[in-house]
Amino acid sequence: MKLLVIDGNSILNRAFYGVRLLSTKDGRYTNGIFGFMNIFLHLLEEYKPDSVAVAFDVKAPTFRHEMYEEYKGTRKPAPSELIEQFPTLKELLGYLGYSVIEKPGYEADDILGTLSAACGKDDFCYIATGDRDSLQLVRDNVNVVLATTKMGKSATTVYDRAKIKEVYGVEPEQLIDIKAIQGDTSDNIPGVAGIGEKGAQELIGKFGSVDYIYENIENIDVKAGVRAKLEASRENAFLSKKLGTICLEAPIDRNIENYSIKSPDTVKASNLLMSLEMSKLLARLNFDEEEIASKSDAKEVKLYEVTDTDVFLSNLRATGKAFFTTKFNNGGIEYILFKTTDGVALVGNYDFMFMSFVSEFFGDESIGKFTDDSKQLYGFCDVNGIEVKGIVLDTSLAAYLLNPNSSDYSVKVLAGAYSLSPVKIEADDLNDFYQAEKEFVDSAAYI
Predict the structure, then answer these.
(1) What is the pLDDT of residues 85-124, one digit of tens each?
(2) What angle do CA 44, 47, 49 make, to 5 degrees?
(3) pTM, to two decimals
């Protein structure tokens, strides 16, 4: 069985700082979730695990704080824009069928260590994290996928035993001893005062462990100054080793089969992603839209073709309003979709009469026009000598004014953001057209 264990705190934190601030129209920050999910989906595609667990810290003291009150005492609080994204991410992962796990008194690292240690000889575990502390967990059947940032771009490096030896000159288990001497300023682990990363690696590379060094402190071949530093920090060295050692026996479920990927709740996941204005992310999940519609409160909307544009235009004038979206293609209009009381009406560009309809419709100020992309519309009409009159609302412009931080103002995204009920299109004779133009036609149902 192949297990993927993810350090949720580490990856979300890295994603938050790696993606510019994004927020929904109602002010919810989403950049960390967006970045996390892109990394997460990449990991799933790359490693194709059978089981997945995403581990998170609990905001409470751990057993390490009981050993050393100042543990992580120098860390600044995380920004509120990041903190608020944790609950939503956990909710989303649950809807998608992935196990979220946390344990009071323990850190996410301890969950990674415990689950990786639970893998049998016939299993394989990938640990995904942005924290090098987890490199100590590498074993013959455990690799660490370390997320890094190079030249401003995210990248991953896979560490196995050979890679650890190449980079650090020691075995993975000895990285704990290096940290015991080096310390860790980010976690406020003291280490041996006056000996840094290079010195710690040299000592452990030469003598193997902190235990050996102190058992033979009088006889080891080191400079007098180094010996004095080691002797002065003996207590801190052993404390640091305890603090830096990841627990392999956290009291959690260690049966990795219980973390197998479950069937997603496509309706809840889709609704949440749309409310987060993440339509592109939703598209990557390849959910069955018909299944979602059948499980949700989908409204049935009929797609039909307008055969008499004169009558249709007269009806628009009588109504005084037109809700429409325009499909542009190679500088021209391919068709226009109108939302009417009868459904979605298709006016196609089949002959010269189409431009006559376009000219009359767009030039009629008595028809209030509600659309989603007036910029392209004005450009097209300007080139063709058509004066556009009566634009009442452009949804993309209105959405931008409400939330300039969004990256997508499409109708589909706005429908999710404003929790509009999903639609189910009945295409009948236009089914072939609908299948080819499905995404665009679906968006027209919300205009």
Answers:
(1) 999 999 999 999 999 999 999 999 999 999 999 998 899 9
(2) 70
(3) 0.73
Instruction: Quick: pLDDT tens for 341-373.
Output: 888 999 999 888 899 999 999 999 999 999 988
CATH number of the domain bearing residue 331: 3.30.420.10
Phi/psi of residue 261, nearest 5 degrees: -70, 125
Structural domains in the chain (count): 2
Judgement on whether residues 231 and 313 belong to the same structural domain of the protein: no
Query: Does residue 243 share a domain with residue 296?
Result: no
Whole-angstrom Cα Rg for the chain: 30
Q: In this structure, which amino acid lies at residue 149?
A: T
Indicate whether 272 belongs to any domain: no
Q: Same domain, yes or no, for 143 and 214? A: yes
- What percent of the chain has a predicted confidence (pLDDT) above 70? 94
Question: Is 198 part of a structural domain of the chain?
Answer: yes
* Pairing assessment for the beta strands 321-329 and 368-371 based on DSSP bridges: parallel
Residues 6+ apart with CB under 8 A from 42: none
Instruction: Identify residue 231 by its one-letter amino acid code.
Output: E
| Alpha carbon distance 116, 142 (integer Å) | 7
What is the DSSP code (8-state) at residue 79? Answer: P
Q: What are phi and psi of 344, to 5 degrees?
A: -105, 120
The residue segments making up the domain with residue 307 are 289-444
